[in-house]
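Reply to dn_fold:

You asked what the input looked like. This is it:
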Amino acid sequence: MTDAPVISLPRIGDTAPAIDSESTHGQLTLDNYAGKWIVLFSHPADFTPVCTTEFIGFAERADDFAERDVQLIGNSVDSVFSHLAWVNAIEEKQGVAIPFPIIADLDLKVSHAYGMIHPGEGGDTSAVRAVFVIDPARKIRAVIYYPMNAGRNIDEILRLVDALQTSDANGVSCPANWRPGDDVVVGAPRTAEALAARKADASLTKKDWYLATKSL
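and this is what came back:
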């Protein structure tokens, strides 16, 4: 009986594993996108129905990601020739051009480094639908995994990027179902003096002593 392979699952706050792989836009490393946010996402296989809808969804919102200085990068274990044939078919049959690179991860280096292979869901080679949000400092800021049979919500990924960027820029947090323009959460006071200051702060909407929101 052989031991099961150890699967690396990068965590939030970890440095994003290095990438140096062939892609549909040539050799790709994270250094190609210095100073940018990155949304790295994997798909099980080219020429599959749910994956096709997801790539169309990402492509149709590519300008929205670009406005947030986010680079989209796809990844699967298919060859670059398969990727090129697939994106060509999407453009010819669906009328949607895929503007972002897709990594040809034939050696599984990216998939293993990012924990995209889940044998219980997709076998030993197919990647699940993983999403990694990576900031300009190359820290992993968010991780989402979806199963094979459920496509991703592109609006939610954009909302997540907005929340991360808003929190970074303003030193606040974003509540459940937050969208740009909504009030944000201010951190709870940690001293009696800070609590007294909060009680006197008319700019805050206070739900309780530890829960207060404000507009930006």
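The chain has two domains: 20-152, 171-214.
Hope that clears it up.
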